[in-house]
Each structure stands twice: as C-alpha cells, then as structure tokens.
Amino acid sequence: MDVRRFIIIETSETGSLDYSQLLQDDITAVKISGSKAIISWENEEDTLDVPSSVSTLTTKSDVFRMSDLIDITSGQTGWEDGG
C-alpha cells in the first residue's frame, strides 16, 4: 500500500529537489503560496520517511499526512501551481 506524504518548504529550495523522487514532475506541478511550496511523495508503508533530496533541505517542515495538510491549509488562499 502506498501512502502519500507532504512537506512544506521555502520556494527557494525547489531547485534542489530530485523530482523523480516526488509525485510532482517539475516545479510547474508544485503548489506554491508566497514563499512556501508543498511537495509530496509516496511511501510503501505508513512511515514518515522522506526522499533523500528532501532530507537535505534546510527549510522543511514536519512531514504531514493528508489529513494534517488539510487542517493546516484549510481557510488559506493562494496555493497555486508553481509554473
């Protein structure tokens, strides 16, 4: 079972990502609001493991499950595709 995970980072770090490790193909598919970006990936199990290119980022938030992300972003506007 694949389990989707999310993290919020500063947009300045999106160029450091290996998009082959993520569900987004490139920056145009990343959700962005101001200086923040949401990226996602799938783990094979219900873990909070992160892809190697994400683990090296310095501005990353905690890892979120979908329900957590909905709670965090509900009521906020401005999340748009990065392209």
Structure write-up:
The chain is of the alpha+beta class and 83 residues long. It has one domain (3-71). The protein contains two helices and four strands, in the order βββααβ. The chain has helices at 52-55, 66-73; strands at 3-10, 31-33, 36-43, 80-81. The protein has a four-stranded antiparallel sheet, with no helix packed on it. β2 and β3 (36-43) form a beta hairpin. The mean pLDDT is 88.
Task: Explain the layout of strands and helices.
Blueprint: E1 3-10, E2 31-33, E3 36-43, H1 52-55, H2 66-73, E4 80-81
Antiparallel strand pairs: 1-3, 2-3, 2-4
Short overview:
This protein has helices at 52-55, 66-73; strands at 3-10, 31-33, 36-43, 80-81. With 83 residues, it is an alpha+beta fold.
Distance separating the two termini: 31 Å
Given helix and strand content, the structural type is alpha+beta
Average pLDDT metric: 88
Could you say which overall geometry the principal axes of the C-alpha atoms support? Answer: globular
> Low-confidence stretches at least 5 residues in length (pLDDT < 50)?
none
Q: How is the main sheet built?
A: 4 strands, antiparallel
Query: SSE order in H/E notation?
Result: EEEHHE
Whole-angstrom Rg: 12 Å
Number of domains: 1
How many individual helices?
2
